[in-house]
Amino acid sequence: MVPTLTATLGVKGHRPVVGTRDCKHLLYVFAVVNLATAAVHANLVDSPKDAKKKTGKSKTRRMQEAFAAHLRHVGRMYPTGIHKRVVLLIDNAPWHRGRPIDEALRDNPHLEFKRLPSYSPQLNPIERFWKLLRRRATHNRLFDTLADLRRSIRSSLSYYQTVRDRVRTLLDRKAMKRTPSTGS
């Protein structure tokens, strides 16, 4: 619930103030963006401050299980009968591999990973979406409760699910910048 801080406009001579709280509750967002249709599919996962004590599982194990559930969700959204092959671009986060992930992939054999090189977020289109989502949902905002944060993120996700042209423009604009020009 700690706000993501970014540059903002303010009245000249007055410094903008964003509050903070000492809160250890976390909200993880797993999402995929279909590069062909610009459809966004997401899952939110809460993590209370003492999750390890409550579950007896490490953060990596909890994240692996959440990511495996997300993969199963993607498998349902893109069923084998319609989509013979679904390629997911992922980074090398520790929760993107392990037994729960292997089981989810075994349940959904049409899902396939394309792992990106380490330390190369610029190659992953979802990173551009994360930046846009954070700007709309969390930048310079202090949330009183985890439910308020969840509501803001869900609202922003719903917005981007309905304005696919905005998402497509975001993805295409970056691709066009990498394309060499043919002019003189």
TrEMBL record:
Highest taxon of source: Bacteria
A Pfam family: DDE_3
A GO MF label: nucleic acid binding
InterPro entries: RNaseH-like_sf, RNaseH_sf, Tc1-like_DDE_dom
Ranges where the Tc1-like transposase DDE domain occurs: 59-150
Protein name per UniProt: Tc1-like transposase DDE domain-containing protein
